[in-house]
Amino acid sequence: MKTAVVGANGQLGSDVVLALNKADCETIALTHQDIELSDVQSVATAIRTIRPDLVVNTAAMHNVEKCESDPERAYLVNAIGARNLAIVTRDEGAALLHISTDYVFDGTKKTPYVEGDDPLPLNVYGNTKLAGECYVRTINPKHFVLRTSALYGAKPCRAKGGLNFVDMMLRLASEKREMRVVDSERVSPTATEELATQIAALSKTDAYGLYHATAEGSCSWYEFAGEIFVVAGVEAKLSVASPNEFPAKVARPRCSVLENAALKRKGLNCFSPWQSGLRRYLKQVGSPVVAV
């Protein structure tokens, strides 16, 4: 099977290319130099030249604050870009796997969100990603839409400053700095390598639809930081940030935990607990891992 990966040099895209290659796919890596999602002619030229069976779209405008300050650009990339891919892949008879986000929800539900829950985004990023989902789901019947959460991976994410949360915590600890981390937001930290494995597994099927795709379980950012230090065997000065100590510039869901209900229902769930994904990531990047 021939698969094109859009955003192939990004934090998630680079791991998707590796996972698809391991799954014996013929994989074509597309970067911003090869395809401009906001330009339908660029999308058509790139896809028609390759003629893939599947396109995996990992590209997006991820920076929440930049989306809020430039909503037109965010909509052009996250929504119209997804629409362009959906139109071209449909016309070419290809399937489309599109990555979305837990930020389509408002975070007020007391239990993990399932695919059937009504989305209600709090910010421009969430709204534009939801619009992209809708375009994909209504235009190309051969679609996979995967909502995920709190990604971190070995490849730097330029849109978020280069350091993921794990690396940032370890760097601050190495500098002997005191860290104060919020415990008011709950997420499911998900390693890009694990999400890429799930994508590769789905690519072998025709089980099209909407899926939640995150590591199992959840934690606050404070709890995540604490586990990082425990697993890495690092002594760190860590405490809970006081209320309003780090006022958010953009509204964010307080609890955006997702349940992989559809994957489990179809026997396709590849995810392990988030703690296991963290241990594998630290081994991958060469950080010491202690027995816990």
Describe this structure in words.
It is a single chain. The chain is α/β, with parallel strands linked by helices and 292 residues long. It has a domain at 2-157 and 189-217 and 257-272: Rossmann fold. It is 40% helix and 15% strand. The strands form four sheets. Strands 2-1-3-4-5-10 form a six-stranded parallel beta sheet, with helices on both faces. Strands 6-9 form a two-stranded parallel ribbon. Strands 7-12 form a two-stranded parallel sheet. The chain is globular. The termini are far apart. The model has no long low-confidence stretch (mean pLDDT 91).
Shape label: globular
How big a fraction of the residues is strand? 15-25%
Q: Return Rg in Å.
A: 19 Å
Oligomer: single chain
Unreliably modeled segments? none
Compressed to H and E, one letter per element, the order equals: EHEHEHHEHEEHEEEHEEHEHH
Largest sheet: 6 strands, parallel
- Summarize model confidence as the mean pLDDT: 91
Record field, number of beta strands: 12
Reading off the top of the CATH hierarchy, the class of one domain is best stated as: Alpha Beta
